[in-house]
């Protein structure tokens, strides 16, 4: 083999032969080396040493799992071809077209577009004017807000992600309700944060089991998530119960992430009370948005309200939220441009109409299913959902709520979400935003399904004796 080596100290006074192995240097400083070798080089081996493509998914992506999708995608969903499908599983109030948003909301968007003022980038935390509009809408003497206390986000889901991200480090744990919105776990686990589930009590209209909640707290607990009104339960906590929750947080110095996306979507006779005005010392990040109350989930407008009257968060949490929001440069600017009008001009009649409809459908569903042997619905007080317990011992054909709801689709073309998706087996969740006639038909089909598969305990015992 021969190698050519360029030498820095090249001599230019001719060729100097050192007489060893034929090595010599020419006047241009190029050193020629001849090496005798008996090793033969395989071209294939040289080729195999080249780098290969090794593109792997990140650990974060591998840890990201949506429990609802994981369960639903694994279900065998083949509807009965003789019956039109009724989907009671999707938490989107716009699916069936029977709950349009208010005309003033649409007009605000038209004006924002026509103004040509909102086609560029906004500050990552949102336009100051839009932040001030949200602050003014939610501010009250007990929990005053200014524009600087509002972070706009791409939907309430991103607001929740920002709040978890700024409060927690890998190795920390957060306390989440069970049953509860599955996104909390999806986000936390992907970030290396442990999830601890505290129990809700169906026999007490889904109030928090406070003793269980407090038993889960340790020195790694970074955040308590309180979802009120609740998805999937449709429950609304009383002021007294909220005070007790705050006492637990205060005793243990745990900040609260309040998921209040369904705030004020409560039925007549029940009042919604936001957590922040009740807090004396517990700092709260309250997450909300336009999606549910204004019936525009696809517009992706959410927010975080920073309640920190005792300056416990300090500047660090606020600065952290600003930095985290810079990762996607904020929510849709057109919706931001319309936000002030949406908040201030939407008519009370629009809100009331939505609530009246949701209450009526909830009452229909509860009334119809309460008389079905083997089912135990829990009447909601707000939001868009009703949870129904299954007495699985009376349905021996099915091992769990997933199999129960799977067969309900196969036989009756009614799709309810198994509550295993919310870490709460032997229940299913019904979305009550469907048209009334569809809700009635769905309840009739559920009744038929249960009548076909229900087995009294006495019959089960008799069969076992045989």
UniProtKB/TrEMBL annotation:
Q: Which domain of life is it from?
A: Eukaryota
Taking every annotated instance into account, which residue ranges of this chain make up the domain Aminotransferase class I/classII large? Answer: 84-446
User: Do the record's keywords include Transferase?
Assistant: yes
Entry's Pfam families? Answer: Aminotran_1_2
Positions carrying N6-(pyridoxal phosphate)lysine: 292
A biological process from GO: L-phenylalanine catabolic process
NCBIfam families, per the entry: tyr_amTase_E (TIGR01264), tyr_nico_aTase (TIGR01265)
> What is this protein's name?
Tyrosine aminotransferase
Organism expressing this protein natively: Culter alburnus (Topmouth culter)
């Amino acid at each position: 083999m021969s190698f050519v080596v360029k030498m820095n100290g090249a001599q230019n006074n001719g060729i100097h032969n050192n007489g060893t192995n034929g090595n010599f240097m020419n006047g241009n400083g190029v050193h020629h080396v001849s090496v005798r070798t008996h090793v033969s080089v395989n071209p294939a081996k040289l080729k195999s040493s080249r780098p290969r493509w090794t593109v792997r998914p990140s650990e974060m992506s591998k840890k990201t799992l949506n429990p609802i999708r994981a369960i639903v995608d694994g279900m065998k969903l083949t509807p009965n071809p003789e019956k039109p499908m009724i989907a009671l599983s999707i938490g989107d109030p716009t699916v069936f077209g029977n709950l349009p948003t208010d005309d003033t909301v649409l007009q605000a968007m038209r004006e924002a577009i026509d103004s040509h003022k909102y086609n560029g980038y906004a500050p990552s935390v949102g336009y100051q004017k839009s932040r001030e509009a949200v602050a003014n809408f939610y501010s009250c003497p007990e929990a005053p807000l200014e524009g600087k206390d509002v972070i706009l986000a791409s939907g309430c889901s991103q607001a929740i992600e920002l709040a978890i991200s700024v409060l927690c480090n890998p190795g920390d744990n957060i306390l989440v309700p069970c049953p509860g919105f599955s996104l909390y776990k999806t986000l936390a686990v992907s970030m290396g944060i442990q999830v601890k589930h505290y129990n809700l009590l169906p026999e007490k209209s889904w109030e928090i089991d406070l003793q269980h909640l407090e038993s889960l707290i340790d020195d790694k607990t970074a955040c308590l998530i309180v979802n009120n009104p609740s998805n999937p339960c449709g429950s609304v906590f009383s002021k007294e119960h909220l005070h007790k929750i705050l006492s637990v947080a205060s005793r243990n110095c745990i900040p609260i992430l309040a998921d209040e996306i369904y705030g004020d979507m409560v039925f007549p006779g029940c009042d919604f009370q936001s957590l922040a005005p009740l807090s004396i010392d517990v700092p709260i990040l309250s997450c909300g948005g336009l999606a549910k109350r204004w019936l525009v989930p696809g517009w992706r407008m959410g927010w975080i309200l920073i309640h920190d009257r005792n300056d416990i968060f300090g500047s660090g949490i606020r600065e952290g939220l600003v930095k985290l929001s810079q990762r996607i440069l904020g929510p849709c600017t057109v919706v931001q441009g319309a936000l002030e009008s949406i908040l201030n001009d939407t008519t009370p009649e629009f809100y009331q109409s939505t609530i009246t409809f949701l209450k009526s459908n909830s009452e229909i569903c509860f009334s119809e299913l309460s008389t079905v042997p083997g089912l135990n619905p829990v009447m909601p007080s707000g939001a868009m959902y009703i949870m129904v317990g299954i007495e699985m011992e009376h349905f021996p054909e099915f091992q769990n709520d997933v199999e129960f709801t799977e067969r309900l689709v196969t036989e009756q073309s009614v799709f309810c979400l198994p509550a295993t998706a919310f870490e709460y087996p032997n229940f299913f969740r019904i979305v009550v935003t469907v048209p009334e006639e569809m809700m009635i038909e769905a309840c009739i089909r559920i009744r038929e399904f249960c009548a076909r598969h229900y087995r009294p305990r006495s019959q089960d015992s008799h069969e076992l004796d045989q």
